[in-house]
TrEMBL record:
SUPFAM superfamilies: Cytidine deaminase-like (SSF53927). Its EC number is 3.5.4.33. It comes from Lentibacillus halophilus. Binds 1 zinc ion per subunit. Its cofactor is Zn(2+). Keywords: Hydrolase, Metal-binding, tRNA processing, Zinc. It catalyses: adenosine(34) in tRNA + H2O + H(+) = inosine(34) in tRNA + NH4(+). Residues 3-121 form the CMP/dCMP-type deaminase domain. HAMAP family: tRNA_aden_deaminase. The lineage of its organism: Bacteria, Bacillati, Bacillota, Bacilli, Bacillales. Zn(2+) binds at H54, C84, C87. The keyword Hydrolase applies. This is tRNA-specific adenosine deaminase. The active site is at E56 (proton donor).
Length: 161
């Protein structure tokens, strides 16, 4: 872990809080190049009703525009939740050098939990992975969000009775 990993993960957490503010699953991502955040994104899958609206994919698209290339070879992606298979594929395709994530994803994590698509020898690119950076903070964002969601559903169901 680099000294700046926690600093940039805090930036990803800020993005996750933007998702939370619009009742989206609070996942945030930033892409860093040469010590500067060049792109950011947060989950808007429910709002946009679009499968491809994950935080990582939004940040990758923005970074492509900033750099003017599909290759993000000198970049590090910081994301609050371990990338899913779709996002891991996009990371490999975009040639991101390094991925730093906060919370593991036991249901869809493809950067080490279920499998590691970012270190698959058969692909022509591999990304270094650092896990668990500010894991508690990142996990609490998700735990609190889903606890509140369940509570709201229960309250709504109780009112119907």
């Amino acid at each position: 872990m680099f000294m700046n990993d926690a600093t940039f993960m805090h930036e990803a957490i800020k993005q996750a809080n933007k998702a939370k503010a619009i009742n989206e699953v609070p996942i945030g991502a930033v892409i860093v190049r040469e010590g500067q955040v060049i792109a950011a994104g947060y989950n808007i899958r429910e709002t946009s009703r679009t499968t491809l609206s994950h935080a990582e994919l939004i940040a990758i698209r923005k970074a492509n525009q900033v750099i003017g290339s599909w290759r993000l070879e000198d970049c590090t992606l910081y994301v609050t939740l371990e990338p899913c298979p779709m996002c891991a594929g996009a990371i490999v395709q975009s040639r991101i050098k390094r991925v730093v994530y906060g919370a593991p994803d036991p249901k869809a994590g493809c950067a080490g939990t279920l499998m590691n698509l970012l270190d698959e020898e058969q692909f022509n690119h591999r990304a270094a992975v650092v896990s668990g950076v500010l894991e508690t903070e990142c996990s609490l964002l998700l735990t609190d969000f889903f606890r509140n969601l369940r509570s709201q559903k229960k309250t709504s169901n109780d009112r119907k009775l």
